[in-house]
Automatic annotation (TrEMBL):
Keywords: Cytoplasm, Lipid biosynthesis, Lipid metabolism, NAD, NADP, Nucleotide-binding, Oxidoreductase, Phospholipid biosynthesis, Phospholipid metabolism. The gene is gpsA. Gene3D superfamilies: N-(1-d-carboxylethyl)-l-norvaline Dehydrogenase, domain 2, NAD(P)-binding Rossmann-like Domain. It comes from Kushneria aurantia. Sn-glycerol 3-phosphate binds at residues 121, 149, 204, 257, 267-269. PROSITE patterns: NAD_G3PDH (PS00957). This is Glycerol-3-phosphate dehydrogenase [NAD(P)+]. Its EC number is 1.1.1.94. Its main location: cytoplasm. Pfam families: NAD_Gly3P_dh_C, NAD_Gly3P_dh_N. GO terms for molecular function: glycerol-3-phosphate dehydrogenase [NAD(P)+] activity.
């Protein structure tokens, strides 16, 4: 051995393969630009030829991110085979409703060792599968991950400092994504709780609708804070019952994403909730949006699953009643305020203990 000191390999030493982004919406476009800024060769697939031409000639996605200049090295195309040619990292930003169809179409063109990453925050309706599970089922790849975090596309596009989480049990997937997507305005943290990270991204959309609704009804910051915090309790209760690690909800893909989506008018889910709170029907709210708001479908799927599994989810159930059963937001708010007074952090004081203490106190009072 020579006497020279070996330096520790840094993330900048990791090879960044050509990147393919599937999806021509706001998030796919923001991610393509980040990867290009980081130095990767980037091709972006979309089904709309005019939009692809637009991106290539003017470097603007007029339909989904009109005020933002895309990195000039991003090449858009409707030719899936060309986009996937040589791609070592594939980022999939297709809404959950079309995700499996696109993956099935793309699968024959994936390179055998390509890293496949879902950035979609939704649940498949028929199967209740998360998108990384769909990816594994469709491809059998060992290099599957998810990217999720507080990542409003329009803010990323404006180069506001942002961070996300790559989650995978495959180390190679985590480090390649960190290397490909890190740049001066974007950081990527790693997690091995793929299920928890992905569940966090899907569930927070439900609560963004609820908080948007409360904002439209003129409720204040105490209300917002109560809703966000109880939402965190509720979503982690549900996700843990399905197999997630509760600690994941303390991170960017849990509380981080919940805060941003419940606080910003840039969130489409928040905007749908706001429109309903102003008195619009769900159909009107979704049509006026013209983009995907995953929470609209997620709420039905989660409420049904929670009822099957006996998971207590008063906020999601109340929202479901407003969105699909004609209850008014005010009725639901009153019901929620009068419902069981439970424990704050269930991981320290279980709900059952609070209930038992209340029953014992009531029994003692009755006997006096
Ligand atoms: N926009 C954002 O700030 C963020 C979005 N996401 C997630 O990314 C996913 C995609 O969202 P966005 O890009 O924001 O949506 P978007 O509404 O801006 O665009 C959706 C894109 O997907 C395309 N698409 C829909 N169905 C398709 C199909 N069957 N085949 C081919 N293309 C299809 C549309 O043509 C459009 O280009 C969603 O699950 C969302 O939750 C995640 C983080 C941030
Ligand atoms: O996931 C997001 C931010 O992290 C985007 O939220 P919306 O889909 O509600 O716009």
């Amino acid at each position: 051995m020579s006497g020279e000191q070996q330096s520790t390999p840094a993330i900048s030493d990791i090879h960044v393969p050509p990147v393919a982004v599937l999806g021509g919406g706001s998030f796919g476009t923001a991610l393509a630009s980040i990867a290009s800024t980081g130095g990767a060769r980037v091709r972006q697939w979309m089904r709309d030829e005019a939009l692809a031409d637009n991106i290539n000639s003017q470097h603007i996605n007029h339909r989904y991110l009109p005020d933002f200049e895309i990195h000039p090295d991003v090449h858009a195309s409707t030719d899936l085979e060309w986009v996937l040619e040589e791609a070592g990292l594939v980022l999939i930003a297709i809404p959950s409703g079309g995700f499996r169809t696109v993956v099935r179409q793309a699968a024959p063109h994936f390179n055998p060792n390509a890293i496949l990453v879902s950035t979609t925050k939704g649940i498949e309706a028929q199967s209740f599968m998360l998108m990384s599970e769909v990816l594994i089922e469709e491809t059998g790849s060992p290099h599957v991950g998810v990217l999720s975090g507080p990542n409003l596309a329009a803010e990323i596009a404006r180069h506001h400092l942002s961070a996300s989480v790559v989650a995978s049990d495959d180390e190679l997937t985590r480090s390649r994504v960190q290397a490909a997507l890190s740049c001066d305005h974007f950081r990527v943290y790693a997690s091995n709780d793929r299920y928890g990270v992905e569940m966090g991204g899907a569930l927070k959309n439900i609560y963004a609708i609820a908080v948007g609704m409360a904002a439209a009804l003129g409720m204040g910051e105490n209300t917002r804070s109560m809703l966000i915090t109880r939402a965190l309790a509720e979503m982690s209760r549900f996700a843990v019952a399905q197999g997630a690690n509760p600690m994941t909800f303390l991170g960017l893909a849990g509380v981080g994403d919940l805060i941003v989506t419940c606080s910003s008018n840039l969130s489409r889910n928040y905007r749908v909730g706001y429109a309903i709170g102003e008195g619009r029907s769900l159909e009107e709210a979704v049509e006026a949006l013209g983009q995907v708001a995953e929470g609209v479908n997620t709420v039905s799927l989660v409420v049904e699953r929670a009822s099957r599994d006996g998971v207590y989810m008063p906020l999601a159930s109340g929202l479901y009643r407003v969105m699909f059963e004609g209850a008014t937001p005010r009725e639901v708010a009153v019901d929620l305020m009068r419902s069981e007074q439970s424990s704050d952090v269930e991981f320290t004081l279980p709900r059952e203990e609070t209930r038992r203490a209340q029953e014992q106190t009531a029994a003692r009072d009755l006997s006096q």
